[in-house]
Design a protein that fits this description.
The chain is α+β, with helices and mostly antiparallel strands and 102 residues long. A four-stranded antiparallel sheet has the order 1-2-4-3, with no helix packed on it. The chain has helices at residues 3-6, 29-37, 43-50, 93-96, and strands at residues 9-14, 19-25, 58-62, 67-73. 24% of the residues are buried.
Amino acid sequence: MKLYDMAKVCRSKNAGPFQVTIDLMFDSEDKYRQVLASPAFCIEKIGQLYRTDPDKIAIKTFDRILTVKVVLPRMYSSGSPLDNDVYGSQQHFPLADLDIIA
């Protein structure tokens, strides 16, 4: 199943000019735990999807509210001539398309 189908909310946004965050919010603890336990949901795989060093990626979990925040470096700083998504609002699609393996 795709991550997009499991998360109630899957969105990205700026976290300053050099980072983007992807928020994943779940409506059930089962889905939340399944994603976190999946071998496909790891910084190495996310690094491949976003063509970035896994050491620059952070996965932050918030158990109480069934939410995961993924923090990624931007390829180009927000607003630079090479940037194609100033607000970072289109950056969640590669992660959202991730197949979650039980």
